[in-house]
Amino acid sequence: MLALKMVLLVCVGASLAQELITAEKLKSIEERLRITEATLNELKRENEALRMTAQASEIKLESLQAVNKAKEVAFSVGLLSAGSQQFGPFSTQENLVYKKIFINTGNAYDSSTGIFTAPVNGVYFFRFYVHSHPDKQMAVSLYKNSERQCSIFSLKPQTNTNASNGVILTLKKGDKVNTQLWENSWLYDDENNYTSFSGFLLFPS
Ligand SMILES: *[C@@H]1O[C@H](CO)[C@@H](O)[C@H](O)[C@H]1NC(C)=O
Ligand SMILES: *[C@@H]1O[C@H](CO)[C@@H](O)[C@H](O)[C@H]1NC(C)=O
Asked: Does pTM surpass 0.85?
């Protein structure tokens, strides 16, 4: 009888010990789970932060691409789209509306008005060439927002004549540049493209 009791006690002791180990294990599993959960949350936060950074970079890239695109500004145009023509004289100054488009990257030059409109703030280069016949006054000026910037002038030349002028201008977005024939002046153009107007953005500012 005593022996049996002893055996029973040993058994109870053993199962108690087993339960204790299990509780301990459970505790450690719980602890590991808690750490894993915390790590997971941390990773989630990091992932979200990375996603936000990537999104911000993408937006920045798109806006840089748009800015770069706006910097592509160059036009070169001839007066006549075809044929030959004397232009003038008129009793008032006349806008020169160049119809032949060699290039018009950025579409800042308007071939229906002859006016270039700056798409971005920047420093721009412009140049115009004019051809005329003898005994006709040739006079053309380049304007920025109706203010004369530079001119060419030839008073009744002896032979056919050619003249050009160019200027670098600081323009604000929306500033307008064009050329005008003076009153009582003439010029000429044909398929040789003697009379032209060109400009481009040197750099944004
Ligand atoms: C102007 O250019 C035309 C075409 O090249 C030429 O025939 C003419 O002689 C030039 N005029 C002068 C004065 O150089
Ligand atoms: C004038 O421009 C046209 C393009 O529009 C070109 O085909 C032609 O060769 C040019 N003429 C001269 C003499 O450069």
From this structure: no
Q: Give the dihedral sign, CA 78/80/83/87.
A: negative
- Specify the range with the lowest mean pLDDT, choosing from 2-11, 56-65, 143-152: 2-11
User: Nearest ligand to the C-alpha of residue 154?
Assistant: 1
* Cβ(99) – ligand 2 distance below 6 Å: no
24 plus 46 within the same structural domain: yes
Check pocket membership of 81 for ligand 2, CB cut-off 6 A: no
Check whether 19 has a pLDDT greater than 70.
no
Domains identified in the chain, total number: 2
Mark which of 70, 89, 114 sits at the end of a domain: 70
| Average pLDDT score over the chain | 91
Q: What SS3 class is residue 75?
A: strand
Give the residue from 95, 129, 99 showing the smallest Cα distance to 199: 129
Instruction: Note down the domain range covering 112.
Output: 73-204
- Gap from CA of 131 to ligand 1 centroid (Å): 8
